[in-house]
Amino acid sequence: MNSNAPGQLLGYILQLPRAVIHLLKGGAGEAVCVEVYGDVATRLSNGSLIAEEDKSSLSGNPLTDRSTNLWKTFFNWITAINNGELNANKTRFVLYCNRQVKGGMVNKFSAATSPAEAQAAIDNAKTTLSDIKKGHEIWEYYNFVLNKNAATLKTVIQNFDLQVGEGAGFDDVRAEIRRKHVSDTHVEYVLESLNGWLQKVVATKIAAHEPPIIKWEDYDRYMIALLERLRTRELIDFTLQKPLASELVSQHVNKRPIYVQQLDHIGILEENILEAVIEYLKADVNRSRWIEEGLLDENAASDFEAKLKTYWKNQCQEIKIAYAELSENKKGQMLLSRCRSRQEAIGDKTPPASTIPGTYHALANRPVLGWHSDWERLFPKK
After folding, report:
1. Same domain, yes or no, for 103 and 18?
2. Strands ordered across the beta sheet of 31-34
3. Are 94 and 109 in contact (CB under 8 A)?
């Protein structure tokens, strides 16, 4: 295995959260591009461009004075300018790094905004790197940038900005999402949703041989719908963010807790037992997280359970009268099916699909209800 592979993979992955940042900061008439004008770019409505290159490292500084990362970046920008792909006077050149960069000429480049400051930064670079000779790994880029295209470099430096983040870049996204007045409770959900949406859009365009260019209006429509879900206080399924461990599911299936025994007793197939275990675990995880995150209080949860028990009781009576000819197992299966299909809000909130069947399984596990007509004798409370 290539020992550099994890670092290289991080470099590619970093582009997605950076593209999300561009969209979050964008506005009408703009478009965000991935691998079109460099790593990430924003085409502004006035015709100018923000061109960003992303550099990452698992440890250490990837932008030292003598690093290939640094000089190849400026080499690529100046080459694009010379080819007419970028306009030096209409482009903001951004170099994003996921590690703190202390001192060094890249910070001097970033701090320079006037022609005089840019020239001083160039003179400093030439002095600092005066010992660089042919054969050095950065010579090709250094020679092209500092010796052959110093005038263009001077313009680039005046429009250059070093931005520093941490890790995989998601902390920057979280901070920008909070600026959208999203509460801390929902920040992670919005982050996961935006990143997943963008990944799908980019992959779809690449597969269709289209440039990965995302109009801000497309992002805005998605964001409006996403925020509307939060405003209507729809309960989040936290198990979508962190799926259940297969070991936990298998453990429940093998241990045969009371709710599973109840299903066994009415002849439920093993494949449906597995589905029931997943429903039970999802409901359990979500209920705990909702209460923990302040999305649900105990009173609302208790009222929800009371409504489910009332519905179960009514269905028991109806099935007993209307379907007296059925076996007890068939009656139990019908009762289970009706209860699993029940639609019930928790207060004013619509729960995920697994919540109602999962809650019924939790009630059967105590047990305060059952599916077989003789459930109280078969599964007495302890």
Report:
1. yes
2. 160-164, 91-97, 49-55, 40-43, 31-34, 213-215
3. no
Element containing residue 163 per DSSP (H, E): strand 160-164
Q: How many domains does the chain have?
A: 2
Q: Are 250 and 219 in the same domain?
A: no
Structure tokens at 54: 């992303």
What's the pLDDT at 381?
A: 83
pLDDT higher than threshold 90 for residue 186: no
Query: Mean per-residue pLDDT for 248-261?
Result: 95
What is the residue range of 304's domain?
245-378
237 falls within a domain: no
299 within domain boundaries: yes
Quick check: bond before 367 cis, omega within 30?
yes
Helix, strand or coil, per DSSP, at residue 97: strand
pLDDT tens figures, 286-320: 999 888 877 788 888 899 999 999 999 999 999 99
Give yes or no: residues 117 and 39 share one domain: yes
Q: Which helix (H) or strand (E) holds 43?
A: strand 40-43
CA distance 47 to 225: 29
- Separation of CA 77 from chain center: 30
Distance spanning both ends of the chain, measured CA to CA: 56
| Sign of torsion over alpha carbons 29, 32, 36, 40 | positive
50 in helix, strand or coil?
A: strand
- Distance CA(20)–CA(195), nearest Å, equals 7
List of residues 6+ apart from 106 with CB closer than 8 A: 63, 65, 70, 95, 162
By mean pLDDT, which of 35-39, 219-223, 345-349, 360-364 is the weakest? Answer: 345-349
Q: What is the dihedral of CA 350, 352, 353, 359, to 10 degrees?
A: -90
